[in-house]
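URGENT: need a sanity check before tomorrow's submission.

F., can you look over the TIM16 translocase record below? I want to be sure the sequence and structure line up before it goes out.
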Amino acid sequence: ACGLCWLGVAAGAALGGSRPRCLRAASRAAADARGRSERRQSAAASRIIGISLQEAQQILNVSNLNPEEIQKNYDHLFKVNDKSVGGSFYLQSKVVRAKERLDEELRIQAKDEKEKGWKAET
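Structure tokens as predicted:
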């Protein structure tokens, strides 16, 4: 797409108008590629950890990825499901997996934000 864009820029300069349209198309293509990469990483994390992002959010009762809220809910659910207080090891394990999945999603988002910031500087 980049080669075509520059060809379009050169032609646009001669014809007088294709440049903005071509640059928008290149920008859209780059954004689409970043989105596909992020979705692929998120899907891979779901497969590796064995739990989807949506399921992890439901288990820890969080609607957005707020690290403080995730940690607070994790601490509470881990404690109340402790086997020594009559809790369920199975449920406690689900809570741990949910926290791992959400932590991984936060890591993916932070990495993407860092890359976006780096690309904006260049």
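My own read: Helices lie at 2-15, 18-49, 53-59, 67-80, 89-121. The mean pLDDT is 78. If you see anything odd, call me.
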